[in-house]
Amino acid sequence: MPSKSKAKGSAWERSIAQHLTELYGEPFLRTPSSGAFVGGINRHRVLTQQQHKNRKGDVTAPDAWLHFNIEAKSYADFPFHQLVKGDDVRILDGWIEQLLFAAQPNDYNFIAMKFNRKGNYILTPKLKNLNLPKGIEYK
Questions:
Q1: Which of 82, 85, 95, 111 is closest to 40 using CA atoms?
Q2: How do beta strands 59-60 and 119-123 pair?
């Protein structure tokens, strides 16, 4: 039986996949056995290009979406005060490192974050033609 935190994270990943499926009308799936399959202590794993595409990130995109990489994080809390003050946020730095380790050139990289009683957020590298109504720049 998975831990509560693993079950919570898996539920968030499925929720993101379901939302993207409804939004784009194409099948997005929670990546089977997601959670650092090729990162962290598993950096030694060598995968073919197709295996890597099918295992990167927490949500697997449809075949036509070649450059999609998303990590999902569901936590009880987040140090927003550090972010607003412009301080380094170590947990966020770790998430970014995890995201970019799995990334390939030309990928669109996102972190979908959910915090208890605080809401849902998307983190993305600054993109030229992306004009967001609200946002905080980090590093």
A1: 95
A2: unpaired
List of long-range contacts for 117-122, beta carbons under 8 Å, 24+ apart: 118/77, 118/78, 118/80
| C-alpha radius of gyration, the chain, whole number | 15
Q: Looking at the whole model, is its pTM more than 0.85?
A: no
**pLDDT tens-place string over residues 33-88:** 765 555 555 556 665 655 555 567 899 999 888 888 999 999 999 999 998 888 99
DSSP single-letter state for residue 76: S
Q: Which residues, including other chains, have CB under 8 Å from residue 103's CB and lie 6 or more apart?
A: 56, 69, 109
DSSP of 17-47: HHHHHHHHSS--EEPTT-SSSSSGGGTT---
Cα 37 to chain centroid, rounded: 13
